[in-house]
Design a protein that fits this description.
Length: 305
């Protein structure tokens, strides 16, 4: 139980750091009207966000890292593992974490440009803590590849706003059970919920492109119709290709191109409906899809998820 104590202590220290940083940076805001009210909203948001983050990360530390020994901090190069599926997961997670923080700061009264920057910076910092845990874990190790994926994902939102003043490329995710998890349930997940996170064979990451936003405003191209490019990999019960091959598997990459639905294009004045649509839009819904894979095969799916 001693190692659990270290994990909890680590994240209790993080809440102090996050809160202090939030107060120092957010207190520099200059808003002419309702400044006190805005500052209170931002402070409250900082406390709620920091508390939720610490709770989630402490739970992660106990349930995930707590099963492994905690030792001396070290680095580990995992860039060739899992066909880089884990790196796309880091990118996707940090992008949407950035968007959530940015929207929260905007709603609290922070200007768009500052909200975007602090959203990206905060999410990068939060994900960095996972790398710290990895660094102390005897099973893993801190990864420069993960750090790069986190940082890129965080500033992918910020960069699009700087370039286009809007999001035109949406990272999305889809999941369908691979059937391989029972072969190594401790690694790939025992339950469906665990497989949703752990089984890279069952995951696909997408980049959904808003075609209409690249066309003239007079264009009649449907605003709800996107083109989506996807990536996944199969036949991986180990992280390394050679171990999978020795076990009789043939790990390979899969590439997709298909139609996609942009639910955020649905017009509504209700904020809660907009939030629901945004959350659902984080996932790529079933749609016609073309696949090409490293085995040299082309496959067509009328509906692929």
């Amino acid at each position: 139980m001693k190692k659990y104590g270290y994990i909890v202590l680590f994240f209790l220290l993080q809440i102090t750091t996050i809160k202090a940083s939030a107060v120092i940076n957010f207190s520099q805001l200059t808003i002419e009207k309702n400044r006190d009210s805005t500052q209170k909203k931002i402070n409250r948001l900082a406390w709620i966000g920091a508390g939720s983050y610490v709770g989630a990360m402490t739970l992660l530390g106990i349930t995930w890292y707590g099963q492994d020994g905690m030792g001396k901090f070290h680095f580990f190069n995992d860039n060739k593992e899992w066909k880089q599926m884990d790196k796309l997961g880091h990118f996707y997670t940090t992008f949407h974490l950035t968007s959530a923080i940015t929207n929260g700061l905007e709603n609290a009264g922070m200007k768009k440009e500052k909200a975007l920057f602090w959203g990206a910076a905060s999410s990068s910092f939060m994900m960095l803590n996972i790398e710290v845990l990895d660094g102390f874990s005897e099973e893993y190790g801190a990864s420069w590849g993960d750090f790069l994926a986190n940082t890129t994902g965080a500033f992918f939102s910020w960069g699009q706003y700087k370039l286009w003043n809007e999001i035109r490329i949406h990272p999305k995710f889809s999941f369908y059970p691979s059937g391989l998890a029972p072969l190594r349930p401790n690694l790939l997940g025992k339950t469906l919920a665990e497989q949703f996170i752990k089984d890279y064979n069952a995951q696909t990451y997408w980049y959904s492109i808003d075609i209409d936003k690249f066309l003239p405003k007079t264009s009649k191209f449907p605003k709800w119709l996107n083109i989506s490019a996807g990536y996944s990999a199969r036949e991986m019960i180990f992280a390394e290709d050679n171990k999978n091959i020795n076990a009789g598997f043939n790990p390979y990459r899969r590439f997709f191109l298909g139609l996609d639905w942009d639910l955020t294009a649905i017009k509504t004045n209700k904020k809660w409906v907009k939030k629901v649509l945004y959350v659902v839009n984080m996932f790529r819904l079933p749609a016609p899809t073309l696949e090409y894979n490293e085995r040299g095969n082309w496959n067509w799916f009328w509906l692929y998820f």
